[in-house]
């Protein structure tokens, strides 16, 4: 049920939202910003280990600076997006961007060194708040060891936030493992409906802030109905500036963000394109490249040898990304957040995933869900075709992609499902009629997920 009235808040009064949050704080207890005010600044130590987290972190940094009544100083680890908002990363984020379980083994020593470097930097910085974004393996080790060090020193302990709840719903025994997090995580900022409730039931303080992908709508300043949550790019402009012939079939390729992942998936995608070229002689590829110099260099080098023209879209450029989505017939993507971006763009897609064969075996054994892409998980239905593990072959991907291009009913089915997915991402736990609920306010146009997250941090009081 959607709210029938909007609060009259103008875009310039960002602090008005923060004042509203104070209503829910006992006057006898001190919140984070009150503690920081004594020092004349708010010190925030941030950690993000991957591209999606870099985007979340950058938006959070911008909002914290906007909402905080005292100057904010940042330290930690992040990527190019976070650097634009004043973070000087301790080391390149790409140094720890490793995915998979068995794939971690060759990098364990380097990761251990980087972890200790991050811990020492955090202790030296003396933050009021420590925020880790996703990357649960590194993040939870960081928060656990930091808490232990502070307890040893018996010094004032900063508040620990983790942004993006671990996917406990995907793994056997996932909920039980939440209980142990409360020892070193003070509060979780959840991005999916119902995660807040489950975290709290397992003794972990949490707030549902909304999914960060929805901020693309606000960042592009789109005038869209909350019933739609849809982004339409300019396909004509995209075709014109790239001189794409009329009648050409455009396919968007999204091979991932980590070099290890891109290397594996782009090899499979390249062979898939060779097969599709037979059926679609006028084929144009659009490859969305993560903001990672190693990835950019690799993609440029390998696609120069492909028999099909490829247009590279730089990561971080929302306008170019959604213009390309609008011009494309379908997308072929590695499993990840991008599947939700494609839902916003209403672009039908095929999801692919490959890893080390032992990693794949462990996933099969430990997973308790049938799908890997979040849209399918949210709908509990195989709306988006998935080619996983040994089934992720060029022949299978070419067949699924070709079928999706030719079959209008399949495309329409995905588009209708995308509308349901975006509505689910807007759903909020609790009583939706109660507009006084702080965690419901993000659904209003001016109350973005990063604003709810930032306000939760600024006015947080430990239970």
From TrEMBL:
The protein's GO terms of the molecular function aspect are: lipid-A-disaccharide synthase activity; phospholipid binding
Record's keyword annotation contains Lipid biosynthesis: yes
Instruction: Write out the GO biological process terms.
Output: lipid A biosynthetic process
This enzyme catalyses: a lipid X + a UDP-2-N,3-O-bis[(3R)-3-hydroxyacyl]-alpha-D-glucosamine = a lipid A disaccharide + UDP + H(+)
Identify the Pfam families for this entry: LpxB
Organism, per UniProt?
Answer: Rubus argutus (Southern blackberry)
Matching InterPro entries, A to Z? Glyco_trans_19
Q: What is this protein called?
A: lipid-A-disaccharide synthase
Q: Where is the signal peptide?
A: none
Annotated GO CC locations? membrane
Q: Which UniProt keywords apply?
A: Glycosyltransferase, Lipid A biosynthesis, Lipid biosynthesis, Lipid metabolism, Transferase
Q: Per its UniProt entry, what is the enzyme's top EC class, as one word?
A: transferase
UniProt EC number: 2.4.1.182
